[in-house]
Amino acid sequence: MADLIRRLKEKDKRYIARVISRIENGDPEREQLLEALFPHTGQAYVLGITGSPGAGKSSLMNGLIRYLRQKGMTVAVIAIDPTSPFSGGAILGDRVRMTGHSLDEGVFIRSMGSRGSLGGLCRAAKDAVKVLDAAGYDLVLLETVGVGQAELDVMHAADSVSLVLNPTAGDVVQVFKAGIMEIADLFVINKADLPGSHRLAEEIERMLDLKPDLPWRPPIVKTIATREEGLVLLWEKLEEHRRFLEQTGERRRRRQRQAELELKELVQDLLGQKLAESLASPDWQHELSQVVSRQKSPISAAREWLRRVRFD
């Protein structure tokens, strides 16, 4: 596994892609890979970018990547695409999205299918972030498709979350969704040259005024991604939020919450696997027959069966 870390640190993009594929496809050594990676994670700044389809998230990231590469930063992207119902893979490919960076050794881009996660993040995507973190990328961009579950998921995987809005797509409705205040660390009004951008900014400001006690007031940045306008200010505001996270201890608290959520999910999965294996046992069949013959109630049978299951 020492060779694994060395190859990752060298940012061999083909090797990184193979490691992510092994994890995504449930390789038998998946757990060992993640175990080896873990001590080398926790350094990258993870930025979540979410918003409704058509808001221009990919164009925004294209411009941001170019700007950050000029500053000498290395950037990795995990772009969550809708999953093909036939192949289970991402419908949109890496080259379709961001062809301009394919030859840049300082940029890694990977599209991953949501795999039934309602446009949010499957576990493989979160594990891919760990791979890129261990590889030493300065910034990991995590783009989710759509809104709803995606917003919640990216909040549990990123240090900062940018919500990208489109002034002509009725995105003012998104601003008033329950919990949006806790999700967005920064609002980006993209395509700001279109009608409605000023009104959308006013609506967001009005919403923020309803929460005057927020320790961090999410800034509003207007951009025109196709002309790469507003990207410098966008990065300045993200850097400002990053400093806020570090100085207030909020980054540590966020990562603690993320670790707790991941640990709970893993425990639930392991318990679920153990329970599934136990369904083939004679004890299960015995309890089932007791319920069918109405000699025992379902709740009593379930409790008795759980008492006999070994979880070691």
UniProtKB/TrEMBL annotation:
GO molecular function, one term: GTPase activity
Residue ranges annotated for the AAA+ ATPase domain, each copy included: 43-214
Record's keyword terms, sorted: Chaperone, GTP-binding, Hydrolase, Nucleotide-binding
Entry annotated with the keyword GTP-binding: yes
InterPro entries: AAA+_ATPase, GTPase/Isobutyryl-CoA_mutase, GTPase_ArgK, P-loop_NTPase
Top-level taxon of the source organism: Bacteria
Family per similarity comment: Belongs to the SIMIBI class G3E GTPase family. ArgK/MeaB subfamily.
Xref: NCBIfam families: lao (TIGR00750)
This protein's name: Methylmalonyl Co-A mutase-associated GTPase MeaB
